[in-house]
Amino acid sequence: MLVHSRSGRLAVQAAFAAAFLPVFALPFLVILAASFATGWSGALPSGATLEHYREIARGDALDALVTSLLTALAAGVLALVTGTWAALAAHALRGRTRRSGLLARALDVLFMLPVAVPSVVVGLALLVAFSKPPLLLNGTPTIVILAHTILVTAFAYQSVTAAAAHLDPAYAQAAASLGASPARVLWRVRLPLLLPSLTAAAGLCFALSMGELSATMMLYPPDWLPLPIKVFAATDRGALFSGAALAVVLTATTLLVLTCVSRIRTRAAYR
Q: 46: helix, coil or strand?
């Protein structure tokens, strides 16, 4: 509801700040402060230092960051392609016949199933399924990327499904009436109209993959160590301040990529 009075707007802003600061902003500020601290025995941290970030630069944390980026990019692209294809297929099936409608609902259930179950279940399922020939993926980076793809595809599917439901079919019908093939209609008409939703889905898939931990813990090989595993390992052995610095690097990298994706999405929306 819109608030027109100045006092009402101030009240809404004050309520938003009271809810946002302690619930959302404060935890991130605590992690940021801890990443520069050498101790924290009182209300505030003590002993400001950059040593934790120097350790990141000198150690293998940068390799873990690159691994996370490569995993998230690969999983994001695969999830976006798979989710978009499935969403458009389900959209085409809806409203045709009863059997087609049932098939579209089956696709909804199939792609939302990984979200409905814990991610450790997905990790265990992949571990059991691909630990023996003929498809032996256990101990390879492929199984980690596959797990991330399965976990984030649902978000791409839902985003494109919602956008496709609001597309005006007149554009595609006009292109088809002028002789454009179905592939050309898809490539030149439907996908450009869906571009804002596609970029939003890509950003969401990337961010979720960058922070995925549970399934990754069960599947990662020693030579493919994503950064969330490093964060967990550091905090598990009691190195909270080093873990906080790793978490800041992970968050900053994710936000940087999302900012770039947001700029692409804004340009796509104005097209």
A: strand
The pLDDT score that the predictor gives to residue 209 is 95
pLDDT at 268 (0 to 100)? 54
* SS3 at position 39: strand
Query: What pLDDT is attached to residue 186?
Result: 84
Q: How far apart are CA 175 and CA 168, in angstroms?
A: 12
For the chain, the C-alpha Rg in angstroms (whole number) is 23
The residue type of 238 is G
Residues in Cβ contact with 208 at an 8 Å cutoff, skipping those fewer than 6 apart: 151, 152, 155
Can you tell me whether residue 3 is helix, strand or coil? coil
216: three-class secondary structure by DSSP: helix
In angstroms, the CA 157 to CA 141 distance is 24
Question: Residue ranges of the domains in the chain?
Answer: 1-49, 54-270
- 111 residue type, one letter: F
**Torsion angle of the four alpha carbons 229, 231, 237, 242, in this order, in degrees rounded to the nearest 10:** 150
Q: Which CATH superfamily is domain 54-270 in?
A: MetI-like (1.10.3720.10)
